[in-house]
Amino acid sequence: QEPFVADEYIERLAWRTPGGGSRGGEAFDPKRLLEEFVNHIQELQVMDERIQRKVEKLEQQCQKEAKEFAKKVQELQKSNQVAFQHFQELDEHISYVATKVCHLGDQLEGVNTPRQRAVEAQKLMKYFNEFLDGELKSDVFTNSEKIKEAADIIQKLHLIAQELPFDRFSEVKSKIASKYHDLECQLIQEFTSAQRRGEISRMREVAAVLLHFKGYSHCVDVYIKQCQEGAFLRNDVFEDAAILCQRVNKQVGEIFSNPETVLAKLIQNIFEVKLQSYVKDQLEEHRKSDAEQYLKNLYDLYTRTTNLSSKLMEFNLGTDKQTFLSKLIKAIFISYLENYIEVEIGYLKSRSAMILQRYYDSKNHQKRSIGTGGIQDLKERLRQRTNLPLGPSIDTHGETFLSQEVVVNLLQETKQAFERCHRLSDPSDLPKNAFRIFSMLVEFLCTEHIDYALETGLAGIPSSDSKNANLYFLDVVHQANTIFHLFDKQFNDHLMPLISSSPKLSECLQKKKDIIEQMEVKLDMGIDRQVDIQTLTLNCMIGQMKHILAAEQKKTDFKPEDENNVLIQYTNACVKVCGYVRKQVEKIRNSMDGKNVDTVLMEFGVRFHRLIYEHLQQYSYSCMGGMLAICDVAEYRKCAKDFKIALVLQLFDTLHALCNLLVVAPDNLKQVCSGEQLANLDKNILHSFVQLRVDYRSARLTRHFS
Predict the structure, then answer these.
(1) All structural domains of the chain
(2) Which of 237, 325, 454, 623 has the least CB density, counted as fewest CB within 10 Å?
(3) Could you read off the pLDDT of 104-146 as tens digits, one per residue?
(4) Contact 665, 671 (CB under 8 A)
């Protein structure tokens, strides 16, 4: 048995033999094992001979059966050849008979067709004779139930009558035409009645008969008219039209042989009658009296009409249904779309002007003409380092003349205008119309509102020596920045999709660039380079701080009469200046963004340091006064940390170290001056601070510092 392993087989045989399983043991008997192997080999030889005889017998039997099978196959092949030969003979016979039958059929048809035509002609001649005699006696004309057969006959007679000469057969032609007309009217009446009863099968039969009559189109008209009876009872004519067309689309194929033509004619009737009348009523009411409502209605009606057209595209209306529906829509709205953009621009202009005027009226403000010249003129004046032509200062009472509500209203009006422009403009005119709307937005939002507020803000900036400087211009900057972000968002979201693939794109981008550049010039004209708006504002801040220091700082603050009775930690002037500076820092952060914040704060911080430095140089300091000055500078340094500008903090750290020279003992002056923060300073600066000490003239101090 498979799998067979000889070694394992020998091992099993030895193990089963007594005395053969223990190798080298006491019970091991090699003779007996040998005897067992010899006997087993003899048994295997006998078994092999028996199996070999059996195999030979089976091989002989297999050869015998193979010969018998081959013989049988040969006999079957012969039988198959005979059957195939008989089949060919039968096929030839069938083909011969079929040819004979077809020939006979052709002969019969050739005989029967003229006979049928003759019979048909005889019948028509009979009916023609009745019209000729003036009396219709045939049952087909008198029996109303045979109207279908009568219609077929009269239609053929009508065609024949048209070929006859008028002078000899005028009377009979007139009678046939009269009967033709009567039957046509009866069929249309029958179709109408069947439609009212809802009998689709009868309508299909009558329509099939009328198909060959001239009045077939009238039958279609009747069907279309009756379909619309009771279909437009709600206020939504567009929804009613969609439901009607959906219902007729399912029915028309069961009645007419050309359903797509009938459905297209129904849709055309709906557009030219129902929709056109509805649109005219809705638009003409407001066309001259209310532009806003007129534009809203026009957009709404056009949108609903195009949506209805999209639904109708699902139906089979012929080969070019897109062009067919587009022509229907154009026929309704062409008179309104031709001058749409003029109405849009006129409304947008008046509406925007009204929004702005209403805002200025609410502020009791009369707009004035401030600032002249364009951006190039402004740049030229800056290049020559001349002052901006601010003119006389205007007291705005802290009003920025910028309104989020006004901006939102203007942007909302423009957004709606862009949406209407996208829907109502011809594709070829869309970029041009969108640019005109954008120009209106630039005029009223950027020029009339933002730019006016900036110009007014510039004119309202007080001089640097003003005692009550209201630095509200930073509020103007903050609001203008926020508004322009909204303007830029609308430019990208609503204008760009309309002009992205047209030449107007570059024109719009250039116009936007000019607006941005003009406003940036007015908001940020280079803080470190020229006299600009921020510089004027910073001058006002520094001027206000000078005024506070001059009004609040007393000479006795740093040289008190009683050195042992000083109860304050820092002077009143320091408290007020620090409070003012913190407010201005917060206002600058709220008014600007990006790198502008750090740039302005750095300039402000440097000027703040210079002011305090020069201010401290104006006084003489006793020992206790010097301690108070150090306390003041420490407070100024805390205030400088709010700037979050490393340079500003470093300047105040150095100033604080300089103030230590006001109180240090004479013996330690050189050590302090060689310290880390003062070692790199000019000796004249150190000397100028030491000179502020009241004991500077003493021989001891002079000896140690020289």
Answers:
(1) 8-133 (no CATH), 141-297 (no CATH), 553-704 (1.20.58)
(2) 623
(3) 888 887 776 776 666 566 566 666 656 655 666 565 655 555 5
(4) no
